C-alpha cells in the first residue's frame, strides 16, 4: 500500500472494463507499473450525507464543484482500530482530498458532534473538517460501500496510480465499518472498475495501451450508483437539486 498521504490533488479517470480486457491490460502494464506491496485488499467506507441525500443528489446534477464526506478503512476495523476521515472534493475535473487518521470510535464521535478533532495537528485541516459539519449540520451515516482493490504505481513515476476494484457492494442499513463486508452488488456482470490517478498529463505509453485495447473513460461513481440502485429498489427517482453555496474553509 502506498505511503500515508493526508492531502491529494490529482485527476482521476474511471473505466469499466471486462475481465478479458483486464487480463490483457495487466500484461501490457507490467513494464511500467508495479503492484502495491499489499496486493489485493479490502476497502470499506461509510459515506455521510443529509437525510434528504443532498450531497449525492447534488453530485449527480453534474455541478462544477462537488464534495463527499466518508470514513475509510483498509479491512474490517474494530472501534479501536485506525480509520481515515476524508473530505473528497472535485472542482472542474480535478480531485482534491484531505484526510486524517484516528481511531474509529473517535471519528464516529466527531462526525456525531460529540467531540473535537484533538488528534489533528494541522489547524487548516481541522478548520476544513469542522466547516463541513457546520455547513451540513444534519450530516449522518448514509451508505456503506466496500470493494476489493488491486493497486499499482508507476515504476519511474510513483505518482501514477492505477487501481482495479472488484465486488463493489453497498448497503443503507447496519452502517458500521465494524459490521463487515456485505451488501448489494453494483458492477455490471463480468466487469470491474479501473481508475487512473495522475497529477499531470497521462504518459504517452499509457495512452497508447488504452487506445490499443479500445478502453475508454466511463462515468461511474460508486456512491451514485449505489444511491440510484437504492432508489430503484424503493420505486423512486432522483430528485434534481439547485446549486448550493460552496462552504468556505
Verbal overview:
This protein is α+β, with helices and mostly antiparallel strands. The chain has one domain (7-234): mRNA Triphosphatase Cet1, Chain A (Alpha-Beta Barrel), CATH 3.20.100.30. The chain is 24% helix and 36% strand. It has helices spanning 19-29, 54-60, 104-111, 123-135, 204-212, 222-234, and strands spanning 7-18, 33-35, 41-49, 65-74, 82-91, 94-103, 140-154, 161-171, 184-185, 191-198. The chain has an eight-stranded antiparallel beta barrel, surrounded by five helices. Strand 4 and strand 5 (82-91) form a beta hairpin. The longest helix has 13 residues, at 123-135. It is globular. Residues 242-249 have low confidence and may be disordered.
Short précis:
Residues 9-228 form the VTC domain. With 249 residues, this protein is of the alpha+beta class.
What form results from the Cα inertia axes? globular
Q: From N to C, what is the helix and strand string?
A: EHEEHEEEHHEEEEHH
Strand content is 35-45%
Write down the CATH topology.
Answer: mRNA Triphosphatase Cet1, Chain A
Largest pleated sheet: 8 strands, antiparallel, barrel
- Structural domain tally: 1
- Please tally the β strands and state the result: 10
CATH homologous superfamily identity = VTC, catalytic tunnel domain
Label the CATH architecture: Alpha-Beta Barrel
Organism: Carnobacterium viridans
InterPro entries: CYTH-like_dom_sf, VTC_domain, VTC_sf
GO biological process, one term: polyphosphate biosynthetic process
Pfam families: VTC (PF09359)
